[in-house]
Specification:
387 residues; alpha+beta; six-stranded antiparallel sheet; 24% strand
Length: 387
C-alpha cells in the first residue's frame, strides 16, 4: 500500500458535476482529491481487505441473531424497549439488507482493524462506485497508472444486482432523505437510478414530509402509501420520532431493515470483542461503565454509542482527553476502544472504507484527514490495484 502523487485532471470538476457528484467541494474545501492515489498489491486486497470485510460481516450477522433474543442487550444498545419486537421480527423474517461500510485501519503490513461499522446510512457510496471508477479508466487511458491496473470496486454492479434480488418483480419503491442536504439528495438520486436499471419504479419523498393516513399507514405528499422504502435516515432517530409507534403497524419494507439498528451504533464494538476476543480484525473495546475497560489503560478512544462523522469522539492520551467536535452526542452512553491512530501517508491519516453489498464484499474507498479522528469533510482519494 503506497500513496502516489498524481496530477489532477484539469476538467475533473466539470466531469464530477456532469454525473451529479456536485458536492466535491462543499463548503469551499476539497472533498474529492486526485492529487494522489493509493496503490495496492493484489495480495493486499485478496488476502487482507476482502477477507476482513467478509469475516466481519459474518460476525455481525451472528451477533444480530443473538441480540434479537436478548432484550437486555438491545436496551444496552439504547434501542427503546417498545421497538424490540419490531427489530426482532425484521430479523426473524430476514428482511433484506442492501449495503454497509466497515471503516478500517490498514497500512498494508498488519491485519485490517475495525474502527466502526456504518451499517445503516453509510455515505461516500456514490463517489466510490462511480467517480472513482471513471478516474481509473481515464488514468489508464492517460498512462498515469499502469495499463494493467484494476480497482477493488464492483460496487455499482453489485448494488444494481442487489436491488434486483430484493425486488425480483420490480414494483414501486419510495426513496426518502433530507432533500436540503445536497450529499444526501445526490446519493439517493444515485440509488434511484440503480433501482430504475433494476426494473424498479422509484419515487422520492422528503423524509420530513412523510405523513400518516387515517389507518396509521405512512403516505407521501400525494397520498401514496409507503409499502417499500429506501431511507437515508438513521434508525436511532426514527425510533425516537413522534411517529415511531406506527413503525410496527405500518408494514413498510424498509431498506435498511430495522435489525440494522443493532449494528449501526458503537455498542457493536464491545459486543464483538466480548465474543471474538483476540480476533485479528478487531480492537479491544468495552462499554464505558464496564470495569474491564480499565484494561485499556490511560490511552484509548471514547466514542458515543450514537454519533456522526467523528462528532464527540474523544482521543484520550495518558489520561488527558483531547478536544472533540461537540455536537451533543453521548446521552445514550459511550464505549471505549483501544487507541490505534490511522496510518499516516505523507502527513495524512488514511482510513479504508470496505463495502458490503448483500453478503458480499464489494470494494473500498479511502478517506484522508489531517486529524486522527475522521471528520465530515475528510478527503476522498482514489485507489488502484497494481497489475
Amino acid at each position: 500500500m503506497r500513496r502516489i502523487a498524481m496530477t489532477p485532471r484539469a476538467d475533473w470538476r466539470d466531469k464530477a458535476d456532469a454525473i451529479g457528484f456536485v458536492y466535491h467541494g462543499a463548503g469551499g474545501d476539497p472533498y474529492w482529491d486526485e492529487s494522489a492515489a493509493y496503490a495496492f498489491t493484489l495480495g493486499e486486497i485478496d488476502d487482507d481487505l476482502e477477507p476482513a470485510a467478509a469475516d466481519l460481516h459474518q460476525m455481525c450477522l451472528a451477533l444480530v441473531d443473538e441480540v434479537v433474543r436478548d432484550p437486555a442487550t438491545m436496551t444496552r444498545l439504547a434501542i427503546p424497549p417498545a421497538h424490540h419486537a419490531l427489530i426482532a421480527e425484521s430479523w426473524r423474517t430476514r428482511q433484506p439488507s442492501l449495503y454497509g461500510r466497515f471503516d478500517l485501519a490498514y497500512d498494508g503490513i498488519g491485519p485490517a482493524k475495525l474502527y466502526e461499522y456504518n451499517a445503516d446510512t453509510p455515505t461516500s457510496v456514490f463517489e466510490c462506485a462511480t467517480f472513482q471508477w471513471l478516474w481509473l479508466e481515464e488514468a489508464i487511458a492517460a498512462g498515469t497508472v499502469p495499463a494493467a491496473a484494476d480497482q477493488f470496486n464492483s460496487l455499482f454492479d453489485k448494488l444494481r444486482a442487489r436491488f434486483a434480488a430484493i425486488f425480483p418483480h420490480g414494483g414501486f419503491v419510495h426513496f426518502a432523505a433530507d432533500a436540503q442536504a445536497i450529499e444526501d439528495r445526490q446519493t439517493v438520486r444515485f440509488f434511484e437510478d440503480l433501482a430504475t436499471q433494476a426494473g424498479i419504479e422509484p419515487k422520492f419523498v422528503e423524509m420530513r414530509e412523510i405523513g400518516l393516513d387515517a389507518a396509521g399507514r405512512f403516505v407521501d405528499t400525494d397520498g401514496y402509501e409507503l409499502q417499500a422504502a429506501f431511507k437515508l435516515y438513521p434508525w436511532e432517530t426514527m425510533l425516537r420520532e413522534p411517529y415511531a409507534a406506527n413503525l410496527v403497524t405500518a408494514g413498510v419494507r424498509w431498506i435498511e431493515p430495522a435489525w440494522k439498528s443493532i449494528l449501526s451504533n458503537k455498542g457493536l464494538l464491545p459486543l464483538l470483542w466480548a465474543r471474538h476476543e483476540g480476533h485479528p480484525n478487531l480492537l479491544p473495546a468495552f462499554f464505558d461503565d464496564d470495569p474491564a475497560a480499565a484494561s485499556l489503560g490511560t490511552s484509548y478512544v471514547r466514542k458515543p454509542i450514537f454519533s456522526r462523522e467523528g462528532a464527540n469522539v474523544a482521543i484520550v492520551r495518558d489520561g488527558v482527553e483531547e478536544a472533540v467536535i461537540d455536537e451533543g452526542y453521548g446521552a445514550e452512553g459511550f464505549i471505549r476502544q483501544a487507541l490505534l491512530p490511522p496510518p499516516v501517508f505523507d502527513g495524512r491519516h488514511a482510513i479504508v472504507g470496505a463495502w458490503i453489498v448483500g453478503d458480499e464484499p464489494a470494494g473500498i474507498g479511502i478517506r484522508e484527514d489531517d486529524a486522527v479522528v475522521t471528520r465530515n469533510m475528510a478527503r476522498f482519494v482514489p485507489h488502484y490495484i497494481e497489475g
